[in-house]
Design goal:
This protein is mainly β. The chain is 7% helix and 52% strand.
């Protein structure tokens, strides 16, 4: 499910080095939680399923626009070179398009880093710099419902 760009925001809790302004994304995918499971034999000899650790969260942000995106590409390059700088990302869904109401839902993506960057098709008539898609892997995802 994609969230509408008119009523949500994607925000890096700690700014990406080299980025002067926020990067705005039009689509977000992968706000999913899944536990690993295992089968075990209990004390009475019956087979049962048990819950394990959370599986890594795979998040995709699409159609990003920013002022330079130099920091985003530098972050990816640093990760590729072994300096895995993990970031916290907030994805906030608002009750209205003006973002004046309190958030309806906030997804807090924990310890994320990029695993893929996709460049967009270039248009000579556009003056903004964009990224078509960035794929991230994260260690955890928390969902908050503000009151």
């Amino acid at each position: 499910m994609a969230l509408l760009a008119s009523n949500y925001s994607v925000e890096f809790v700690e700014a990406i080095d080299g980025e002067e302004a926020p990067i705005v994304f039009k689509k977000v995918y992968g706000l999913n939680l899944r536990l690993k499971t295992a089968r075990s034999i209990n004390q009475t000899g019956k087979m049962e399923n048990i819950a394990g650790d959370i599986e890594p969260v795979t998040l995709t942000l699409e159609r990003g626009v920013g002022k330079g995106l130099q920091g985003l590409y530098s972050w990816f390059k640093n990760v590729r070179n072994g300096d895995v700088d993990k970031k916290e990302i907030l994805i906030t869904l608002y009750n209205n398009a003006q973002k004046t109401d309190e958030p309806a839902v906030v997804w807090r993506v924990k310890r994320a880093f990029p695993v893929a960057l996709h460049a967009p098709e270039w248009d000579a008539e556009e003056n903004s710099i964009a990224v078509e898609k960035i794929e991230l892997i994260a260690e955890d995802l928390e969902v908050e419902f503000p009151e």
